[in-house]
Structure prediction request, 135 residues.
Amino acid sequence: MSQMIFVNLPVKDLDTTKAFWKTLGYSFNEQFSDDRTASLVISDTIVAMLLTEPRFKEFTKRDIADPVTANEVLLGLSAESREKVDELVDAALAAGGSPALETQDHGFMYGRSFQDPDGHTWEIVWMDPKVIEAQ
Prediction:
């Protein structure tokens, strides 16, 4: 069995957050979702658990970082091509996300980033498979 990752992220407005990700073409596992939690399916092995801030607080004794003013994590996703990087980031910006960092183009690696409506930074990166195989 493949190892999975479940990233837990606090969100201010669950409906707004769900609408944003649906606009980008992602789906939710309703079996693990309710009125305070949405299980965002990114791939077969990657799930983001989007939790309302009160629900997120049930899992920690620490303060919730405000992703608009501080970064606790940068979330990186691979893309199958440079064009897919642009498609996803452009769609995120059109759906209410905001630009994060400048485009990174190193020839063999291309990436762009955006902040989702809650301020979490997502980096979308393509790496040339020929370069990876040569390593």
Remarks:
- The chain has a mean pLDDT of 94.
- The chain has four helices and nine strands.
- The beta strands are 5-11, 27-28, 37-41, 46-52, 74-78, 98-99, 104-105, 109-115, 121-127.
